[in-house]
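Hi everyone, sorry if this is the wrong subforum. Our group has a chain we'd like a structural model of before ordering constructs, and none of us has done structure prediction before. Sequence below.
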Amino acid sequence: MLKLREHAMSYPGYVGAENLVSDKDPSIVAIITTWDSVEQWRDWQESRMRGEIMKEAEPLLEEELRVSVYRVISTVRWVG
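Answer:
Right subforum, don't worry. Here is the predicted structure as tokens:
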């Protein structure tokens, strides 16, 4: 996964990433990446290099990779 992160870091629009590991099952990992735009993330997602890295990683995966896209929305600060 470090190889994948290094590749993402070189792509335009990459902001950062967090790796989350389940306390109950350490084989469950969520990787959250942040990008300037969905379009820049899609460019990286569809890149040849990412595809090659994911092919190498496939034998290590216990399940098929699941990808979800979320948008950050501003929160309202409540004054009390």
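For your construct planning: The chain has one domain: 2-60. The mean pLDDT is 89.
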